[in-house]
Amino acid sequence: MHTTVIIESGIEGPDCAADIVNIVHELPGIDSVDVSPETGTVSVEHSPLVSEDDICRALEDGGFPVQR
Fold it and tell me: FRET label pair with 28: which of 19, 36, 52, 56, CA 20 to 30 Å apart?
């Protein structure tokens, strides 16, 4: 499955991008995470074990509000 979410406040540099990757990879069933600071998007390849809501909740809990 593929999910793309938009970070509301943008992604400020490589440290934020690395934090986002680490947050999402903590979820079960994550295959890959691609962060684009230029567009403020996070693209995730994952199994059906994890939902878009799970990904959004993890990002928000980690301090990265997302557009829903």
Answer: 36
pLDDT, tens digit only, all 68 positions of the chain: 999 999 998 888 889 999 999 999 999 999 999 999 999 999 999 999 999 999 999 999 999 999 98
Structure tokens at 35: 């962060």
What is the C-alpha separation between 30 and 41, in angstroms, rounded?
16
Answer left, alpha or beta for residue 11, where phi above 0 means left and psi between -120 and 50 means alpha.
Answer: beta
DSSP 1-62: -EEEEEBTT---HHHHHHHHHHHHHTSTTEEEEEEETTTTEEEEEE-TTS-HHHHHHHHHHT
- Token code pair at residue 6: 């938009």
The domain made up of 2-54 has a fold known as Alpha-Beta Plaits (3.30.70)
